UniProtKB/TrEMBL annotation:
It is a multi-pass membrane protein. InterPro entries: UbiA_prenyltransferase (IPR000537). Keywords: Glycosyltransferase, Membrane, Transferase, Transmembrane, Transmembrane helix. This is Decaprenyl-phosphate phosphoribosyltransferase. It is found in: Membrane.
């Protein structure tokens, strides 16, 4: 049972909390129906992601057995058979689809997005991850699908700015993760992924800089846009840009100086400074849209 749990990687489910972005930026955190729909969608996406993790380990089982760290994964170590992996993959997806029936509205639209995400990532596991740049774009688009599902499930209109920021931020994190692979390749002479040879530090560093810069500009434009000001009835959201800048700089420091950007989930779980930045951003944003605008 322990190995089956390791195979579905529940510690990675934290990244599916991005489903709540429409609720957060839509000012609906105090609406129980929206929070409930968001939680169900997080559960559904988490189960679907676990299904993909199973397929990923099945496809990569031979390469993982040659890897100094991944060789300890349940599939690569032989603790879980390939047949068991396929069964668990199917079970996770069935449970995911079943959970969407717990939604009170727009079940079909939400389930359709999740199914598309599942099919896209099957293609990613089987083929797309072999191609540099395409691989990170698919990963980033997967997070756009998460917020799209969150928008459908909660019946909250998605701003074009949220879609753009999500894609750009996840592209930034994906490039930072690939940088860790390039560093390992340079140190060991072994490419952790098939497409790692199509990256180098010069390209990765420039890609990280570009995506971080565009993400920051996009967020600032979001906070000062007439649409946002009209929606939240305040023009003070631009003040939260400082936390976005600090977060990006901190992650670049972790990636370039500490060389520990291989797993964004672990960074968020273990890096106290990053946690404080995210917390401060959230509190500042909530204060401005829920408190400050009411006392003006």
């Amino acid at each position: 049972m322990k190995n089956l749990i390791l195979l579905i990687r529940p510690h990675q489910w934290i990244k599916n909390l991005i489903v709540f972005l429409p609720v957060f930026f839509g000012g609906a955190l105090l609406q129980w129906e929206a929070v409930y729909a968001g939680l169900i969608t997080v559960l559904s996406f988490s189960l679907t992601a676990s299904s993909i993790y199973c397929l990923n380990d099945i496809v990569d089982v031979h390469d993982d057995r040659q890897h100094p760290v991944k060789c300890h994964r349940p599939m690569a170590s032989g603790a879980v058979s390939i047949t068991q992996g396929y069964i668990l993959m199917g079970l996770m997806f069935i449970l995911s689809m079943t959970s969407t029936f717990l939604l009170h509205a727009r079940q079909v639209e939400t389930a359709s997005v999740i199914i598309f995400y599942w099919l896209l990532n099957i293609g990613y596991c089987l083929r797309l991850k072999r191609y540099a740049i395409i691989d990170v774009c698919v990963v980033a688009f997967g997070f756009v699908l998460r917020i799209l599902a969150g928008g459908y499930a909660t019946d909250i209109h998605l701003s074009k700015w949220i879609v753009l920021m999500t894609f750009l931020l996840m592209l930034f994190l994906s490039f930072a993760k690939r940088r860790d692979d390039v560093v390992k390749m340079n140190e060991t002479g072994h490419a952790p992924r098939q497409n790692t040879i199509r990256y180098n530090l010069t390209f990765i560093n420039q890609a990280i800089t570009i995506t971080a810069s565009v993400t920051l500009v996009c967020y600032i434009m979001y906070t000062v846009s007439p649409e946002t000001i009209a929606n939240f009835h305040t023009d003070h959201l631009y003040l939260t840009s400082v936390f976005v800048l600090l977060g990006l700089l901190r992650y670049i420091q972790i990636s370039v100086v500490d060389k520990k950007s291989g797993d964004p989930t672990k960074v968020m779980i273990h890096d106290r400074f990053m946690q404080l930045i995210v917390l401060a951003f959230g509190l500042a944003f909530l204060f401005i849209i829920y408190v400050l605008k009411n006392i003006q």
